Structures
1.
Amino acid sequence: MAASSLALKTAVRLPARRFASHFTYQPSVAPASLGAERTKMNLCQAVNNAMDIAMGTDQSALVFGEDVAFGGVFRCTVGLQDKYGKDRVFNTPLCEQGIAGFAIGVATIGSTAIAEIQFGDYIFPAYDQIVNEAAKYRYRSGGLFSCGGLTIRATCGAVGHGALYHSQSPEANFTHTPGLKIVVPRGPIQAKGLLLSCIRDPDPCIFLEPKVLYRQAVEEVPSGDYSIPIGKAEVLKTGKDVSIVAWGTQVHVVSEAAKLAEEKLGVSVEVIDLQSIQPWDEDCVAESVTKTGRLIISHEAPLNSGFGAEIASTIQKRCFLSLESPIERVCGWDTPFPHVYEPFYLPTVWRVFDAIKKTVKY
Amino acid sequence: MFKVLQSKAVVSLARRAASNEVSFQSKEYKLHKLDNGPSTQVSISRDDALKFYQQMQLIRRMESAAGNLYKEKKIRGFCHLYSGQEACAVGIKAAMTDGDAVITAYRCHGWTYLLGSTATQVLAELTGRISGNVHGKGGSMHMYTPNFFGGNGIVGAQQPLGAGVAFAMKYRNQKNVCVTLYGDGAANQGQLFEAANMAKLWNLPVIFVCENNGFGMGTAVERSSASTEYYTRGDYVPGIWVDGMDVLAVREAFRWSKKYCDEGRGPLMIELATYRYSGHSMSDPGTSYRTRDEIQQVRKTRDPITGFKDRILSSNLVTEDELKAIDKTVRSEVDDAVTHATTDGVLPAEALYTDLYANTPAQLVRGATAEETFAQPFLRTEDLLKSMGQA
Ligand SMILES: Cc1ncc(C[n+]2csc(CCOP(=O)(O)OP(=O)(O)O)c2C)c(N)n1
Ligand SMILES: [Mg+2]
């Protein structure tokens, strides 16, 4: 929005073309260590496959949530009820607080609970149960009880038209609560390995699936049972001049910006997928910033108290003497997630590109 | 008001009807913890008959238009249609008096129209235009008019709010009710029970209304609810089951309920048995969890508009020509609304930052490049509109 058009006194016309997706998906290749056999899967199928493996290897694993018996609104649980029966895969009524509380109970008695909250935006009715019960059970019972078997899967992120209540990225709402683990995958290979880790982790996990990637993200996913460790970031591209940290869909946005910066500015960018937001891989980021001297953090969630703030604070302390420029954050604006203004709200490739320019020229 | 005038105009054109008032027998109500209930003998005047017909037809037609706009990809995101449930809103509205309030969930297009918005304001909101109910800032699930508190995307969130609104009415000694609507799916959110307890504890004039359309998304009521007798689920809150496909039964039930609340005896919990023709939202074809046959059967035997039309015609209360004239005005009103919804402009982009807080200093807004930032030009959408000469 140029200043001149801000002064515009008449309503602007909508562009004739609908906004295309704000990023280009960059598929990953799984390392050989995850097994030779591969199957082409999108993110939705990878999530389904992880739950299938978890249920096949753990007789106590249950999958439940609104409409999951029929496959769920995003089709992530398709076929699981047929395979594992109605007593292990079932619909719940529409009651998120109840779903979370019930899941905590199931997990506390020692079973594996995989609960689906249809949209991350609907996780807030369940917030009390997750924050006050799930996160604190182990601590307050001196280790006698825990709900380690609990994994809450929820969708997150922008899809182009989700507006206020089908677009939010609530990761930072949960990182402020010790006792929870929060993971966001960038694609199918990661999703499968990380979801299996969450399901088998001895602490309660929240697994946020960027719903825009469900169909769009397709990769050759290792067919077997494998896991990707929680708490480890991945350097997707090495570089010398500036480090960029992102997670989920935003990884693809920053990767594109990094490419652009190399072409147009001759800047060498290191791209890091944090993937595990809590706990997060401080060492990986610190090492990278020690090398490059510059850091940009980018997330879809609003800037204010977003997880980028935590990273920035930690890194400025650990890498103070290596920093060549102030740490930049390129995030959603501090507004509710808007309806028609989504393209202006998002931390787009151009905004990230601009931040790269700014940090290297500082 | 516009609507009433319009149907009056139609009436004056043709005075061939035999009588000015007829009465009908409606289905038995079912009562919960009530000794007596609304009358099943309901009468209706010519004016009202024409008005209800016009309102239900307009909502039906507007929703078809919304469905088409969605299919043409002119509506982004979510869009939940009210087709099949028209008699619920129209019947309740007919019993409402000045100062009564309504709050509902996301299936709110029909309500928005009945409570003061035009078809243009509804459809243009769906397409995100400046002429929309909230100038495109809300979209399908978020529309408001004075005393209509929306339009809620979070299922179950509106229920306690309704109790709060009703408390204010009681506190101010208003003879008003807050009609608090939710679906059969939302009936399972814990907030309903918390709200019902508060409402009964403090005898609030709130009428909880469960629009039971048989499904919450793809889940049939029997699969989600331990008891599908939604009118009894307030336990100590008295309840009434009403045929929600009969606009007259609905109106009668709400007249009775309003009186009951006016006497300081509220709350009440009313179940309206109804049906949704379309899928849950436009992305759901609505045929994987029920048969096409079932939908056809309801259309044939229980349709709220066809049923009502048959009644008022066969009793000679109105004439075929009068209804045809209404159909014509409805068609042109909706066509006109579609034109606006597809050609009107949108709010300028700075409205992204309006209505964040009431009293904070202007926030910094990024310009064409990231270096260029300046203070939020308008704190309120209203001010922005004024600056454009549109408010
Ligand atoms: C807290 C929350 N959970 C889930 C949803 C997703 N959702 C939207 S509508 C709906 C079904 C509601 O059914 P019902 O209450 O019967 O209303 P109807 O759609 O039939 O009018 C669900 C599960 C939501 N919007 N908010
Ligand atoms: Mg329903």
Note: The longest strand of chain B covers residues 206-212.
2.
Amino acid sequence: MTPEPVGIKRELMKGNVAICAGAIAAGCRFYYGYPITPQNDIPEYLSAHLPPIGGTFLQAESEVATINYLLGTSASGKRVMTSSSGPGISLMQEGLSYMAGSELPAVIVNISRSGPGLGGIAPSQGDYFQATKCGGHGGYRMPVLAPHSVQEMYSLTMLAFDLADKYRNPVMILGDAVIGQMKEPFVPTSYVSTVPEEKPWSLTGCAGRPRRIIKSLHLKDDEIEAHNWKLHRKYMTMREEEVRSEPTHLEGAGIVIVAFGTAARVSKTAIQWARAEGLPVGMLRPVTLFPFPSREVDEAVSRADAVLVIEMNTGQMLEDVLISTRHHDKIRFLGKPCAIPTPEEILQEIRSLAGEIGVKAGNVR
Amino acid sequence: MKNKAKEKFTKQVFSRPRSLLDVSTHYCPGCHHGIAHRILAETIDHFDLREKTIGVAPVGCAVLMYDYFDVDFVEAPHGRAPAVATGVKRAQPDRFVFTYQGDGDLAAIGTSEIIHAANRGENLTVLFINNTTYGMTGGQMAPTTMLGQKTSTSPYGRDFRNDGYPIRIAEMLATLEGTAFSARVATSTPAQIRKAKEAVKKAFDMQIRGMGFSIVEILSTCPTNWGMKPLDAQKRVLGEMSGYYPLGVYKERKQADFA
Ligand SMILES: Cc1ncc(C[n+]2csc(CCOP(=O)(O)OP(=O)(O)O)c2C)c(N)n1
Ligand code: SF4
């Protein structure tokens, strides 16, 4: 474990509140949202903490309106955030498409729940498709960050604002009820911006400069085609430059787990137990779900004897894993659509997988 | 002597408003979007707001209005202009923010956003163009379509048993506490245009003074989709439409709530 920086205290905080702290640290002063379980601590916290520091909190009439408040504030050149859960994120899809088309930055937090429909409020990773493939119209992409600790709820929120500004694009944080409600100590590191503060495209009134227009409509054939390719190149740059993943005990691991967020968090415990039994298990945890760490996944799968994909759904990231590698015969799946897999369950899966492929327990330390 | 006479006789009395660009618009002959644009631009100039204004464009025939105005503009999804404008105004309370919306945009798909913007007393100004149809998509029925009016999706005429009744927005929004100003005007005669300008000025003034939400509904024409000659379209506004949609000021706040 790295030593704590001098002068920075650890704090005990809920994941959802750590998102708020990260947003405020990153200079976000505008939050709009509509209540939905299991993310209500975010608007509740910000309604109390934004106004005293000169920020704006506004409860919207719907998520449809919410995302369009974001569009307006983003067009004004300000950092802005919303949070919701599956059904509310569904209502934001039109606005997200417009923001992607108009190249407007914003941070959208999805503390997802199980679906489809009203589904349930149990922890779930059922929104992987909607987040990473983008549910709105026209074909666009956005970076999706998947925190697995309170520390990351804080730090990835700060990163999300920088990525949003860097690419002029919405960025989503995909969490779930466990990571949102979980309290654990974290270090509130200070925010260091990696992007310029000026937004030479923002709408501020055309005093002393030509007017500016922010739009997504391009009626001429060649114009919309050029715009589509421009956006495509931007998404390709994200794929080149923004992939983030965390390897754990990958060296010499015969069995590799691929999991994100809460599923990865629980897997870490199971991996500890399995390694204590001498089973050579490691993990590759995608931190960015888009761009997906395809190269890293392929390398890990190539070197492993078997790969166990674990998700709190019936197999969504699994499809990206399958696209990333040719070694489909090595891949197994453990899915829990509406519940947290227990470390015991995962350990059991690891043991039977080890038996199946003939991985011998040995000294893995 | 000679120069003085020249000065007297060459004084410019009519010109393009500074806020309007010198371009031709895509509007059909006899369409009143152009008149509404001009009133809007003149009022921006009147209050010297060009460099402080952010306009929010609708989805409808006026979707390209940002090509005609020399001010900053953002495009909103269909019906969401009041929400986008809210986001702009909250971020920049010292800027002048307006939306310009048709009756499909404002009175159908965007009813939730307009009602809540008004009810919050959002300090915005809205120009609402009521031409009793969806112009851009080819003249389908709108919530404002008159009973009996034939459109491409009410080929037998609008029937209240199937489609309900034409909705009166200016009156409805006037009932909301947050609304500072709500009026309905028309632009089918020079006298009406003068009155319309006065109403738009008042609406602007409400925002400038921080009084809250202001809206001017403008009874407009769509000769193309009404299947009428421009002159007959004017007659329809002056007769049938003004009968169901009475012109007038429905709310005018005299004193701000915070005063
Ligand atoms: C979500 C969505 N639904 C439908 C449309 C198609 N559409 C474009 S303009 C329009 C109606 C515009 O009518 P109105 O607001 O009355 O304005 P006008 O064209 O008459 O000025 C519709 C339905 C769209 N662009 N987006
Ligand atoms: S279709 Fe109707 S509303 Fe649209 S520009 Fe033509 S006349 Fe005007």
Note: Chain B has one domain: 26-252.
